[in-house]
Amino acid sequence: MRHWFVLLLSAGWLVGLAPVARAQLSFDARRTGMAGVSLSRDGALSRFNPAYPAVPARQGRGAKVTIPVPLGLFQVLKDSAAFDFNKSYFNPIALANYILHPPLFYEIKKTPTPTNDVEFTIGRDSLIVDLGSAAQLVPTDRFGFGGESRLMDIGLTIKGVHIGALVWEDHEVGFQLGDTLLRFLRQKAPADTNTTYASDGDAIAQAGFAPTLGYAGRVWGDSTRGIYVGAAAHYYLGVAYGSVVGTAGFVTGDTLFAGSNPVTPTVDALVTYSKAGHSFGHGFGADVGIVYVTGPVEVGFGVNDIGATLTWPDTRVDRDTFDTAANNFGSSLVANHVPSKTKLPVTYVANASLELGTNTTAGTTILNNGRGTTIQIGVEQRVGPLALRGGVARDQRKRVQLGWGTGVRFGAFGLDVGFATHSGSLSTARGITMATSISIY
Amino acid sequence: MSVTRLTWLAATAAGVLILGCGEGRAIFNVDVYSFLKDAGNDSVPYVAPSPFDTTPPQPVNLLPIGLGSSVVESVTVSGSVDFVNQAGNGTVGLEFYIDTVPAVYGGTPAFSVTPVAVTPGNTSPAPFQGDLAALSRQLFLSQTVYVGMRAVASGLAVGKARLSALRLRIVIQDKIF
Prior knowledge:
Chain A has seven helices and 20 strands. By secondary structure, chain A is mainly beta.
């Protein structure tokens, strides 16, 4: 049962997150060893900069195929703490970390998960929660996750003109604990009577497809020195969408642990949705990019989803609340058959690389996808068939991460290993991942 | 309390517990005395050798986390009782009865305070501490337990046992899934 669960989870990640992973997580050990930097003008750059399909691949640098060696899956299969639900040592935080960080690669140093005691102090009129060291996991700022993925991009390219369609999805979840709830959970503040403990939250999920017309080509210069531009226009057709914005929590009564109602739920959320099979959302968006190459120097800049606002012509808006009189959750119609708008986050990417002429290549990538900026700097030194790599990055949570690795290449085949530090979403400590991949050149 | 509200509170409390679980334990420090005192059930009279008086079973609300399949590793009782003796000489002790239903006095006491000697017009304090009988531990996986007290006196003595503190420390190996 557990093995099936892991396999299904992994298959879901491979299918659903592959496009994202190519760009951000990387299944390529070479990139992992350079803290995420791509030096080979591969799909990672093309995803965000539409000029790159026109830039010739570096001689002998870009792999035709890179196959990750998923050593991490074997490790996950043995991790009882995450999947043995009925055991006392089951740790849902370990499971959450797997969900947030696909375990394709081997974790040589796992992000430590808290296993401390939780202490509740209860009196008739008092309640104190001591989460111990786990209290540091309670987010003080707005906490969220999400991403926009282009799950599939099919089409035809003739003389730089690309006609096709892409399948996209976007999901964002965020919440912010209220002051009283934050103090209660993080600072062991005693619960008060007649007090609201709540969190603001919002979430959106939308998906659809987009017919695309694009162009990428060199507008100046030659193959050694030139300027390449690219642009793509997307007509977004949204198949389904749902969003929720509101507040949820509980209100304490006159007495905490006496009487029939110690707490009263408080929920007030606005839910907006358009189901699949209903009317399509629609809107225009565009990607633009430019790359300048001059000998050993290369600089690129791309912007995705400019002005990508979708109008959903026929949506329903409900207000979900907790009805204290009826003592249950209720939903009331606010409006039906009304238009609503959603946006796709604009993504910016800037990159540069430099061939130093001593078989050394250095590069940097700056990516902002609406959820924070990541900065990656990496370098590769080639010595015969051997390659040594290193890098440093600042992740979305503004933490410094390191990467290092090596690789060996024999003819058309290369075997690479890369190490990278990372901070778990639910932990402040760093772990180390070892990525392994095989490349065919 | 309605099921809906219970579910809501349970989800909140379970979320708190999830944050710190793993191989950690859930520990509940319950100030039982605060429940008894508020209801006026913090003292029980005794008239030895007449039949012993009891307090009305007092409900003590715990967190509705849904710990049904968890294991209560230990329950430690600590507190203090003052035997306020009005007249006579003898020995007086105190028994605590705990159950998940109001009929708490049908079984054996969950914990007993060793009897102390009492003298006319004097108050005899009796601090106590100990572990709850193993059979009573699993009761604390319920959302509510009922607590009752019975004074046990011998000799010829009249007075009342007045509780001044009663705390339970419940250590649970939680399994909330």
